[in-house]
Amino acid sequence: MPRGGYEDHEVRQRPNRRGSRPRTKIRPEHREAVPALVTGVDRGRYAVLVHPGEPHEQDVVAMKARELGRQRIVPGDLVAVVGDVTGAPGSLARIVRITPRRTLLRRTADDTDPVERVIVANADQLVIVTALADPEPRTRMIDRCVVAAYDAGMTAVLCLTKADLADPAPMADLYRPLGVDVVVTSRAPDREVAGLDEVRARLDGRTSVLVGHSGVGKSTLVNALVPDARRATGAVNAVTGRGRHTSSSAVALRLPGHRGWVIDTPGVRSFGLAHVHVDSLLHAFADLDSVVRESCPRGCTHTQDAPDCGLDAWVGTDQEDTSASPERRRRAARVDSMRRLLTARSATDQS
Ligand SMILES: Nc1nc2c(ncn2[C@@H]2O[C@H](COP(=O)(O)OP(=O)(O)OP(=O)(O)O)[C@@H](O)[C@H]2O)c(=O)[nH]1
């Protein structure tokens, strides 16, 4: 191998039985590659923003280089691209590298199917959009989203919509002990969405993934937050040649003023959690994690019925005691909530 590695054009490929392997295992270095952010994926074509955040950033359509094999590329991925990065109509660049991911949101098809699907890379937070009524909130589903966020290394935000129809307080009380931030929106008929400033403040400067069931008001929210959302999905449209964005895969939309990204996930309705390990969930609860490390017996499951679980001693013996101190009540709520997530993780019911 020449000093400094091979250039792209120096690697000769020859057909073999499977017709797809390069002749050498040495990969080209692609020193001319430029950085890009993946904003959408549709049928093997990738919408990428080359030189993101720079004055000369450019929307480009790309394909995946053969050498990346079966590695999945998802919205939020930071990649290196080569080839035609002008973004001219009909041009096609090539993604040759994926930068190691900071966070990785995944799901399993269902709890018994261990095949993992990567949904979004490098996002900071998962915004779980839930209506307070019409449709009724599904706490099991929300719990599962929180587990998926924590497993991914992301924080979780609960966005409660339709506060004009029901009181947000009970839901907020249920999720705050989990470390979940809560924001509330509402809308009178034919009026703008109220509460948007609070949502914007939470999204500011971050990459946020929005999930939510049909009818919860997610589209209303996305359109209010990203007024040119239609235009922003244009890069993917250019890929498919279709007039409208009909893909069910995630797409990254930039907030006005370059104040962060919102990644909409039209196709994601539930999270199979077969891949989630108890430890990765506990990492999101630093206080409980240290208790567990110090005082739980080996192999402790930390569930309600686990014998000698250190979390019970941490809370105090008599949890029914109504005169319990505020601190003890706080600890009890936190342990109960974490145990709820442990249950959500292993429950097969995804409703
Ligand atoms: N009362 C009330 N209705 C709302 C609010 N936000 C959205 N809606 C209504 O709820 C309905 C569903 O809103 P969408 O934004 O389409 O919901 P979605 O989650 O995107 O649902 P899909 O498009 O099916 O994925 C629409 O009729 C909205 O007008 C709100 O804050 N209060």
Key features of this structure:
cytoplasm; single chain; alpha/beta; 5-stranded mixed β-barrel; ribosome biogenesis; EC 3.6.1.-; 13 strands; GTP binding; globular; OB fold (Dihydrolipoamide Acetyltransferase, E2P); 3 domains; binds guanosine-5'-triphosphate; Rossmann fold; 351 residues; G_CP_dom
Structure write-up:
Its main location: cytoplasm. By secondary structure, the protein is an alpha/beta fold. The protein has 3 domains: 8-98, Beta Barrel (OB fold (Dihydrolipoamide Acetyltransferase, E2P)), CATH 2.40.50; 104-264, Rossmann fold, CATH 3.40.50; 278-346, no CATH class. Helices cover 26% and strands 24% of the residues. The chain contains 10 helices and 13 strands. The chain has a 6-stranded mixed sheet, with helices on both faces. Strand 12 and strand 13 form a beta hairpin. 38% of the residues are buried. Residues 231-247 have low confidence and may be disordered. Bound molecules: guanosine-5'-triphosphate.
Note the run of SSEs as H and E.
Answer: EEEEEEEEHEHEHEHHHEEHHHH
Distance between the termini: 56 Å
Bound molecule kinds, no repeats? guanosine-5'-triphosphate
Approximate strand percentage: 15-25%
Family: Belongs to the TRAFAC class YlqF/YawG GTPase family. RsgA subfamily.
Keywords: Cytoplasm, GTP-binding, Hydrolase, Nucleotide-binding, Ribosome biogenesis, RNA-binding, rRNA-binding
Subcellular location: Cytoplasm
Pfam family, one: RsgA_GTPase
